[in-house]
């Protein structure tokens, strides 16, 4: 009898691409395995008329998929790892983190503006406090407006003749995966726009007690990416910032060491705390934790408390 593994996915084009990509990798690794993709709607998908920080809560794009894992409706859930809460319940495990795609954020402008050439007071669309805060840090004159919708919808809004946006900011990885990089105007430098923790990486989740599925997923794991995102997510988790507050982090390998840079920014961009450190690759989680405490000694907790107060309903 042919074994079937069910992947739970959101409906968006990007989530669909990601889930089918993982399905193809599993079929390649296990030719005898039947893999099916089943779709679920998340809270973040249902509520599209409010900025993400106003919706609040954790797991906006993941809770329903986790519920499907627990009920047996799915064996595996594929997430953009930056959307998966760092305080994941013990019933679940991240069985694989495949090799990471681009970590960069990019600017899309109908008129071809770069961040430097955008007119004074230009309107820039983003649903991310991390992005808006870092934009404000270098261009405090910009008018940041909420931008929701899946990737193609947001690109369409940016390029429409009657668009209210002079530019929008998106993750390069999603545009690459959907073959839409021709719309990119500028790749933003990491000095200006440090990415979200785990940006560009996929997290393949399953039940922690599902040993058979964990064994299969291990074939898809990319150890260097896993170490980098472990450090970044540990930084975020120690700050208790969730994935919606203006916190950025990026780790990269230097021989057997990891170099981690973390950043916390005020909503108006006027205050920025940037910290960095090295550690052996096997100490990725400890690196993230210690760097977060370094940021806290410089006032990151006070800054984040102020952000929480500002965005509270």
The total beta strand count reads: 13
| Whole-angstrom Rg | 19 Å
Q: Beta-sheet strand percentage?
A: 15-25%
One letter per element, helices H and strands E, the order comes to: EHEHHHEEEEHEHEHEEHHEEEHH
Within the largest sheet, what's the order of strands? 2-1-3-10-4
Shape: globular
Measured distance between first and last alpha carbons: 53 Å
Give the overall average pLDDT.
92
SS-based structural class? alpha/beta
Any low-confidence stretches, pLDDT <50, length ≥5? none
Largest sheet: number of strands, sense, barrel closure: 5 strands, mixed
Q: How many H/I helices?
A: 11
Helix content: 25-40%
Account of the 3D structure:
- The chain has eleven helices and 13 strands.
- The chain is 35% helix and 23% strand.
- It is globular.
- Helix 9 runs parallel beside helix 10 (284-297).
- The chain is of the alpha/beta class and 313 residues long.
- It has helices at residues 13-29, 43-46, 52-55, 63-71, 129-138, 151-159, 172-177, 211-217, 223-238, 284-297, 300-311, and strands spanning 4-9, 34-39, 76-80, 92-96, 105-108, 123-125, 143-145, 167-171, 186-187, 202-207, 247-254, 257-265, 272-280.
- Strand 1, helix 1 (13-29) and strand 2 form a beta-alpha-beta unit.
- The strands form three sheets. The protein has a five-stranded mixed sheet, with helices on both faces. Strands 7-6-8-5-9 form a five-stranded mixed sheet, sandwiched between helices. It has a three-stranded antiparallel sheet with strand order 11-12-13.
């Amino acid at each position: 009898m042919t074994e079937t593994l069910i992947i739970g996915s959101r409906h968006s084009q990007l989530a669909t691409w990601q889930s089918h990509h993982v399905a193809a990798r599993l079929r390649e690794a296990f030719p005898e395995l039947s893999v099916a993709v089943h779709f679920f709607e998340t809270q973040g998908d249902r509520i599209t008329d409010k900025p993400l920080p106003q919706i609040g809560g954790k797991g906006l794009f993941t809770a329903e998929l986790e519920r499907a894992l627990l009920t047996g409706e799915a064996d595996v859930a594929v997430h953009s790892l930056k959307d998966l809460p760092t305080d994941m319940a013990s019933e679940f495990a991240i069985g694989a983190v495949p090799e990471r795609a681009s970590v960069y954020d990019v600017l899309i402008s109908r008129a071809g503006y770069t961040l430097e050439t955008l007119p004074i007071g230009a309107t820039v669309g983003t649903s991310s406090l991390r992005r808006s805060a870092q934009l404000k840090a270098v261009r405090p004159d910009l008018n940041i407006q909420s931008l929701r919708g899946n990737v193609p919808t947001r690109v369409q809004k940016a390029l429409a003749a009657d668009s209210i946006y002079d530019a929008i900011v998106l993750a390069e990885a999603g545009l690459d995966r959907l073959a839409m990089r021709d719309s990119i105007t500028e790749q933003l430098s990491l000095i200006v726009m440090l990415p979200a923790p785990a940006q560009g990486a996929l997290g393949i989740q399953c039940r922690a007690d599902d040993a058979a599925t964990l064994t299969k997923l291990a074939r898809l794991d990319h150890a260097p990416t896993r170490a980098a995102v472990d450090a970044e997510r540990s930084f975020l988790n120690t700050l208790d910032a969730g994935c919606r507050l203006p916190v950025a982090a990026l780790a990269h390998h230097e021989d057997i060491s990891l170099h981690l840079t973390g950043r916390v920014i005020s909503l108006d961009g006027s205050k920025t705390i940037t910290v960095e450190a090295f550690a052996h690759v096997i100490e990725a989680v400890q690196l993230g934790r210690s760097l977060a405490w370094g940021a806290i000694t410089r006032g990151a907790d006070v800054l984040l408390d102020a952000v929480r107060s500002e965005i509270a309903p």
